Amino acid sequence: MAQQRTKIKELLSNGTEGKTYTIKGWVRTKRENKNVAFIALNDGSTIKNIQVVADPAKTSEEVLRKITTGAALAIEGTLVASQGQGQSVELQAHSIQVLGEADPEKYPLQPKKHSLEFLREIAHLRMRTNTFGAVFRMRHAMAYAVHKFFHEKGFVNLHTPIITGSDAEGAGEMFRVTTLDLDKLPRTEEGKVNFKEDFFEKETNLTVSGQLEGELGALALGEIYTFGPTFRAENSNTSRHLAEFWMIEPEMAFVELEGNMDLAEEMLKYLIRYALDNCTDDLEFLDARAAEEEKNKPQVERNELGLIERLRFILDNDFERLSYTEAIEILKNSKPNKKKKFNYLIEEWGADLQSEHERYLVEKHFKKPVILFDYPAAIKAFYMRRNEDNKTVRAMDILFPGIGEIVGGSQREERYEELKERAAAIDIHEEDLWWYLETRKFGTAPHSGFGLGFERLMLFVTGMTNIRDVIPFPRFPGNAEF
Ligand code: 4AD
Ligand code: MG
């Protein structure tokens, strides 16, 4: 079996009937009788299996016995037209080698329906299922499309640090990075931990955002984007939060809030179009899967549109843009607010919006994506540009059906005095953030950017409903297995 392996995707789309090929992959199912054995083999290159036909008379009994669900095989055979239904070609095996057995008594992925909760516990194997194979192939396609989009627009991919000494979002929910011996912490004279003795000689943490460094890049390179892991230690055990997630953060010099919204809308539409154009097989599978799941939901919670229809709908509609103030008016007068159905009732201007409010606006009121802008300064980060009214800042959030907030961004405060004041108000001092403030002293310029939560995008394009199912190895409170 010297021949190089051909990937099943390639074989199914470009294979020549009558030619001999070597394929390698994992057994999904085997059916056999005295005269013939059918093996469905999958190698991860496509959601489709290839049907392998083996002659039991020409295959050793030992090999036949070891061909069970999950086993890894190398097969050489001839590609022929298939007699059976469900596939146009199949591989007539000449020789089968068992590379790795999978004891049927112990292999957890027997061919039956498994719950997503169960599959999360076996994340080391779940990528071998149709669902997770499709999700992670699509995750790759989306990551590629992100780079393609920004590259085509002339943005520079900037690698910002993962270990930082600053708290970009001012939320304080950070994972500490230290090499200090926790059993023997060095102390200062006042009895505090002495971080001068730590590896970096100062307090450090895992980044909550690459934005601050991204801004430095934009004020030199013009237009940049980051795409990296992001860490938040908020104890939010929800289906939309991870402790480790991936964020895409573009930053543009000489662009104000309007242009920022335009870029975000263009990017989201580009990524969704890319999925529709390039992930057809996986999307069709996930569409059918999502439709199946819908049947288990109560009527009122069901989606009016299927997965692929929801993606098309995004492309066909402009996002609704409205101010926070307008949104509060709509929410105040909404049925769930009047009937006290919201968990958090909207009583006055200034209230922070919860995901129930965001979803009401998107799913019930406008029935399309919404961009909210000009939020109260008090509920947004210190670096957002203050408006003339002195109450609101040039923030924008994009809200998506079924997801809530998918993008958060703003025009940045480019005026030195204003920025220094806002930072000080939340106890960030010049000595902590001198390098960030300095860009406002030397050649400052209006600039804007946003962050797209990559897993929130993945939820939307795959129709999965729990964020733990769109990242290979999710990190969340109480879980860092694998
Ligand atoms: O709204 P956020 O916190 O904004 C920022 O971090 C800014 N620095 C972005 C910028 O302007 N450059 O986060 C941005 C997005 C959210 O809209 C959400 O999609 C995602 O990141 N996100 C999370 N995704 C998964 N798990 C979490 N814990 C997340 N927190 C935020
Ligand atoms: Mg946000």
How would you portray this structure in words?
This protein is α+β, with helices and mostly antiparallel strands. The protein folds into two domains: 8-110, OB fold (Dihydrolipoamide Acetyltransferase, E2P) (Beta Barrel), CATH 2.40.50; 128-173 and 208-469, 2-Layer Sandwich (BirA Bifunctional Protein, domain 2), CATH 3.30.930. Helix content is 32%, strand content 23%. The chain contains 14 helices and 16 strands. It has helices at 8-14, 61-66, 116-121, 130-152, 211-221, 257-278, 280-294, 307-316, 324-332, 335-338, 355-366, 416-425, 430-438, 454-462, and strands at 20-32, 37-42, 50-54, 72-81, 89-100, 156-157, 163-164, 176-177, 204-206, 223-231, 244-253, 320-323, 370-376, 392-400, 404-411, 447-453. A hairpin with a 3-residue loop joins strand 14 and strand 15. Bound molecules: 4-amino-1,4-dioxobutan-2-aminium adenosine-5'-monophosphate and magnesium ion (MG). Residues 397, 405, 408 line the site of magnesium ion. Magnesium ion binds next to strand 15.
